Amino acid sequence: MSDYFNYQNNQLCVEQVPLTDIAQHFGTPCYVYSHTALVDGYRQFESAFAGRKHLICYAVKANPNIAILHQLAWLGAGFDVVSGGELQRVLAAGAGASKVVFSGVGKTVAEMRLALDAEILCFNVESEAELVRLNEVAGSMGKIAPVSLRVNPDVDAKTHPYISTGLKQNKFGVAYTEALALYHKAAELPHLRVTGIDCHIGSQLTEIGPFIAAVEKVLALVEVLAAEGIALEHLDLGGGLGIRYDNETPPSIADYAGALLTALQLRNEKIIVEPGRVLVGNAGVLLTRVEYLKYGEEKNFAIVDAAMNDLMRPALYDAWHRIQPVVRVPSPQSSDGTTSHSTRLSKDDSQVAGYPASGRGGERERQSLIYEVVGPVCETGDFLGHARELAVTQGDLLAVMSAGAYGMSMSSNYNSRPRAAEVMVSGTVVQLIRERETVHQLFAGEKTFLL
Ligand code: LLP
User: Closest by alpha carbon to 371, among 355, 385, 353, 356?
Assistant: First the structure.
């Protein structure tokens, strides 16, 4: 449990607000974020790199909600974007383009134009073909594009294969052995200006070793480049710092930054990092309600109203998220009157329509049993957690923890399910930061085919 989500009088709260109240007011499924967690995480980065020229470029893909971007921009963050859409979000959030780096293997001409028009800080170029295209596009606009090459250092990040990006069999970056030649090419192209070097080896790294192995390879290249007359302004070391979902023990932000700074002490270029998950992952939960309990011969199922379309990580990576009861009570009777409600948004949760106060789960209700926590989507892969011990009954609320990163951002409308609402909390202040989608919005752009 983090400092931002904890039990007060047996009610799981986000900061000072019971999640029960948020569910009652905004419905479920609902993503709930702690504003303080976000700010604290960012400040930890700032203080870890203090005393060194640096820029913390939040990886927008982790959670692109405008409220999150706006808050981080206000704190002084830059942004790592991977599409024109993400760049437009950053601009819409009121952030300046001058702190934006643009990563990604497939930048289109339109995206390059958008970024050149906005005058971003740097393009992280991932192939020779992209370098050539960027030079042409910049030339056609009468602009000079600032570039870094994303170098693939061929380092094993020791993470899930789908989110490992720094091995030579991965599609990312330019091969380490070709980087030098490409830098010389970039330096000669008339509409490019070489400003940096970039590297990102993967996500959810729980050890420092692979980060340092990558930095050392980058540094070796930087030194050769300097000797050959290509001086860089910044070193972008990517993102990837992991978080604790279960029993992982990732390095702290301070230890991670300290190790990078130690490895870099002989250099004085500006350091850029691109953290995503570590800033927002444990700042958010997915709040969901038990619709049905179903007891099988082999397995019991807690069927909840959130599904793989809301949180894809379990289905896609077999990812493990802690699942907590929102109200910790041994029996239905004791759930009444045990909460501290200084910030209640509305009346007691036991009166939710459709979930009468008794007779919801038969004699097994609220017994501690092992459940598959599954959603309503028509796929066996639609699960949020396997084999979880829970004492629940129909209508109970559950919180899927550590869901702030790559939760909402990877959600879809599969099964014509509108995407969840998003709520942010600071202390006792609660604000809706994204309305629940409506079904009408889902098919608003569709047309009947008429012959
Ligand atoms: N920079 C680049 C170029 C990236 O590709 C990524 C993430 C980041 C920074 C941020 O990495 P972070 O600090 O968040 O680890 N959907 C997956 C994670 C995909 C990460 C993709 N790239 C998941 O849910 O685990």
Answer: 385
